[in-house]
Amino acid sequence: MSYEIAVIEGDGIGHExxxxxxxxxxxxxxxxxxxxxxxxxxxxxxxxxxxxRATYNLAADADATLFGAAGETAADVIxxxxxxxxSFVNVRPAKAYPGVDAVRPETDVVFLRExxxxxxxxxxxxxxxxxxxxxxxxxxxxxRELAEFACEFVEDGRGPTDDAEEGFTVAHKxxxxxxxxxxxxxxxxxxxxxxxxxxxxxxxxxxxxxxPLDPTQYGVVVCPNLAGDVLSDxxxxxxxxxxxxxxxxxxxxxxxxxxxxxxxxxxxxxxxxNPTAAILSAAMLVEFLGHVEEGKQVxxxxxxxxxxxxxxxxxxxxxxxxxxxxxxxxxx
Amino acid sequence: MSYEIAVIEGDGIGHExxxxxxxxxxxxxxxxxxxxxxxxxxxxxxxxxxxxRATYNLAADADATLFGAAGETAADVIxxxxxxxxSFVNVRPAKAYPGVDAVRPETDVVFLRExxxxxxxxxxxxxxxxxxxxxxxxxxxxxRELAEFACEFVEDGRGPTDDAEEGFTVAHKxxxxxxxxxxxxxxxxxxxxxxxxxxxxxxxxxxxxxxPLDPTQYGVVVCPNLAGDVLSDxxxxxxxxxxxxxxxxxxxxxxxxxxxxxxxxxxxxxxxxNPTAAILSAAMLVEFLGHVEEGKQVxxxxxxxxxxxxxxxxxxxxxxxxxxxxxxxxxx
Lengths: 332, 332
Ligand SMILES: CC(C)[C@H](C(=O)O)[C@@H](O)C(=O)O
Ligand SMILES: CC(C)[C@H](C(=O)O)[C@@H](O)C(=O)O
Hints:
The structure is a homodimer of 332-residue chains. In chain A, helix 1 packs parallel to helix 11, helix 9 runs antiparallel to helix 10 and helix 10 packs across helix 11 (321-330). Chain A has 332 residues and is an alpha/beta fold. Chain A is built from eleven helices and twelve strands. Chain A has helices at 14-26, 41-47, 53-61, 74-84, 140-155, 180-195, 204-213, 225-239, 276-288, 292-308, 321-330; strands at 3-10, 32-36, 64-69, 89-95, 108-114, 118-126, 131-139, 168-172, 199-203, 220-223, 246-250, 255-259. Strand 7 (131-139) of chain A pairs antiparallel with strand 7 (131-139) of chain B, so a sheet runs across the interface. The complex binds 3-isopropylmalic acid (IPM) (2 copies). One 3-isopropylmalic acid (IPM) sits between chains A (74-75, 78-79, 229) and B (175-176, 205). Chains A, B: InterPro entries: IsoPropMal-DH-like_dom.
């Protein structure tokens, strides 16, 4: 049996880091069939659509999707693709690695971001020449689904510390958004209590102050959609930027994996992009398919290369994407 | 002529830092009449209301208001008070001071936060057992009012660098909230262009990554309400916490000034709270009333004390609130 993986390189360095991740997957003892599809700015220019129906369908039908990055059209590509795979949670680990320059080298946090609603539900209206509105949506069902996932995540020891006792932190703004974030918050605590998982909370603004002051206070952080977007990107700044951060958009029987970084137009096409985030995203893909050992193998190889192997320019080295990728494959 | 200042200490260390700020104001060559009023958790316990009508009216009718902090009831107190003074912008400088331990000592940014709408407009509905919504509101009129203020702020050299050429940065999420943040963004750029002020932009998530990586990239940052809340609190974390940060809620002919910190229940009542944020808020009050020289006098005295005067415990010293306040008064 082999897994069908939809491969969407997208724009810019997507064309460099996704092939790097595939080289690593190919070196594992797992059988994959990779099927390429197009999306992004260039696709829009050619076809008029940033995300052709065929690409959407491929992602929906595959066992998993590996995505690179998209430029101006990012929202038109990634939001429907998250929907295509039925993703309800975006898993975003933000971890500083030894030897990598970081504002806060102690950072090791995993964000579990609600992936379907909040302001992303996208109901906007132009009510008059002066007035526009957006309807922010929070349901108990989506909140509970996220909470169940968070509990399992913690119980399975998949947080930064594998200590399930640590539980999770809910970051929200229920002191202002009383009804919507109030519902979110309430469901998080209700499910945590039902399952005997510890939960505490932090207002999202206070979280933004406290994370840079001491990131070790937090482990697994569960957030509504936009809060998860902003707070996980803040953590990215603390670990030294987006170049190392993978992410997983998880659904019930499908998922999409993407580096958190963008298309990096300044270096695109030069073969010097850092493939780490894409390779770590591939590791999350392998784990999602049930091959936990192989996922760990990839992460260990990446960490080993980060500590004393070749480095790309963003990390102060002068290695190419291929050299870093070869080093990772070598150390698997 | 003397200015009528509404004084609302609120809860916790509000009772310590607001009197400290008043001591400093009293030492200036400006005549004030201070009128005290109640609000906050204790007031709610006593009267059933966190913000009695009399307090609201006092703030609405005064020349300006000095507010301390409120506990659990913070949102019930501060949101109506912002409305009472007709505030359309919340000015939040985040500056690291020499000698104060900071994650990013180069930080010197001023946030101009829209203060009336966004998710704070507060229309929420429980549509079913499963579903709640919040209507996020953005108007061109409020956006333009903020933009006009931002242009004047920049033109008057009130940003971190007094160089008007630097313009301002708009932080928003218009790639997702296309209609609402799209409107906000469009009005910011339109007014900037009309007035010949430079404006650039950053997505709010990218801003959260880039600020910790290099805060010197930014000067004056203009944001929708919640973005301004979270991003300015992030900057607070980079300068070493909330203990030093003042803020001003500015309206057309009235305003309210408040330290960004909360009630600090752990140290409340001990006389050891850091009065700096409240004193700097008082400096902003004095400037708002047109006494720019006296405002600068206070800020200079505060900076001088921070660099070699007595310090409270949060800054590694063991001075009391009174000792720090006396030192500031002494150096005016
Ligand atoms: C491109 C954009 C729509 C997207 C988001 O806001 O979710 C991105 O910022 C991300 O975090 O993956
Ligand atoms: C207390 C709360 C309503 C308030 C806000 O969100 O505006 C606070 O966080 C602030 O920033 O002043």
